[in-house]
Design goal:
Keywords: Membrane, Transmembrane, Transmembrane helix. The chain has 186 residues and is mainly α. Helix content is 82%, strand content 0%. It folds into two domains: 135 residues, no CATH class; 47 residues, no CATH class.
Length: 186
């Protein structure tokens, strides 16, 4: 093999690798990162704009209050979504462009630790809805209290703590009579 064919192969590989990483940056950065953030932000701003104009419509006050409450919930959800997703997406794009080598163990370990921390923060995104809704919605709190306390707690209490402290009559008269007769024979 000549040195020109090896350098041509290396050059060809470098071109394919840069094309591949460019596709990863586009797919990961845009489709998994930027696009969901933009869509969520746009629709939350549209919801906020809708609630700002709801005062002009002839709707009952309770309905307006509930619309404002749901819009506040959506806005807080989008803010949490952006704050929890953006650091990991930024880190992944950085790592794709500037990968750390395993030959430098300390830098590689720091990179993996940072990835684990940011991935954990990103995963909080999936569990935070419940807590945000509890904080920002009195109606959600009331409904949750009704479901947990009134329905499930009562069922659990009945199932778990149903003690038979009652004295019930024994309806088996024949069994008692035959037992008494056998006691007398002894």
């Amino acid at each position: 093999m000549s040195s020109s064919s090896i350098s041509d192969r290396i050059l060809n590989f470098a071109i394919q690798y840069s094309t591949y990483t460019g596709c990863i940056i586009i797919s990961f950065g845009v489709i998994a990162g930027l696009l969901p953030i933009v869509i969520a932000s746009v629709f939350s701003m549209l919801a906020y704009h809708n609630v700002r104009h709801i005062v002009r419509r002839q709707l009952p006050i309770v309905r307006r209050k509930l619309d404002k409450q749901i819009t506040a919930m959506v806005l807080m959800r989008v803010i949490a979504f952006v704050c929890l997703l953006l650091p990991y997406i930024t880190y992944r794009i950085y790592v794709i462009n500037f990968p750390t080598s395993r030959s430098v163990p300390m830098a590689y370990a720091i990179s993996r630790l940072l990835q684990a921390i940011l991935l954990s923060i990103n995963n909080i995104n999936f569990i935070i809805n419940f807590y945000l809704f509890i904080i920002f919605s009195s109606r959600f709190r009331r409904q949750m209290k009704f479901v947990l306390v009134k329905k499930y707690w009562q069922r659990w209490k009945y199932w778990c703590c149903s003690m038979n402290n009652r004295i019930e009559p024994d309806n088996n008269i024949e069994g008692r009579n035959s037992q008494m007769e056998s006691d007398e024979n002894i």
